[in-house]
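ugh ok so i messed up the first submission bc i forgot one of the chains. this is the corrected input, ALL of the components this time, i swear. 227 residues overall. if the numbers dont match what u have on ur side tell me asap before i send this to the collaborators (the ones from the other lab, u know who)
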Amino acid sequence: DAGVIQSPRHEVTEMGQEVTLRCKPISGHDYLFWYRQTMMRGLELLIYFNNNVPIDDSGMPEDRFSAKMPNASFSTLKIQPSEPRDSAVYFCASSLYGSGNQPQHFGDGTRLSIL
Amino acid sequence: EDQVTQSPEALRLQEGESSSLNCSYTVSGLRGLFWYRQDPGKGPEFLFTLYSAGEEKEKERLKATLTKKESFLHITAPKPEDSATYLCAVRRSNFGNEKLTFGTGTRLTIIP
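and heres the new structure output, hopefully the right one now
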C-alpha cells in the first residue's frame, strides 16, 4: 500500500517568495496532520484536519502560514511570504478514526530552505 | 500544557550492548503513549502504542514499558541497523483530541 506522499522532497527559495508544500494522505484515512521539525524544537504540530475540516490550527506560527484540504486526497501548506526562520523539515501524517488509539503515519517530509 | 522529555539526547552502544531509553511525560489524562523510530531523511515510523501503566509491548529487540510518569524503550543486544532517532509522544484523553505532543528524541548509534 502507498504511504503518505509529500512533494517536493526539497525546496530552496529566496526570502519573500511563496512556498507551497503538498501532501497526499493514505487512502481512507480520516485525519491529516502537518508538522514542522527543527533541531531546537523537535516535531511540532501545526494544524490538523478531520474529514477535510480544520480542527486545531493553534500551532500555526503566524498569518503567513495557511493550510487547506480541498478533498480527502490532497492537502497543501502554504507560506507567504517566506522567511529564513521558516527553514525546517515539514511532515505530513495521516491516521484512521477508530475506537482505539490509531497511530499517525508519516510521509518522508519536505526539507525547506529559505535563503 | 503537555510535556515530554526524552533522555539521553544521544547514546552510543557497542553491538550487543543492551540499554534503555527514557521518556518522561506530563499530561492531563493519558490516552496513549507512542514510540516512533526515525531514520535520517525519513519520516517517523510507528513502533508501539501503550495505554496504561504496567503495559509492555515487544517487537524484535525492542520492548516498551509504561508507568504513570514515564516510559522506557529497552533495546536488547542491538545491531547496527537499530541505529536511529527514537521519538516518544503522548496523546491526551479529552474527547475528539487527536493531537500528539512529541519529545525531541534520543539519537541511538550502534557501533559494529
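quick check: Chain A touches chain B through 23 residues (CB under 8 Å). that seems consistent at least. The radius of gyration of chain A is 14 Å.
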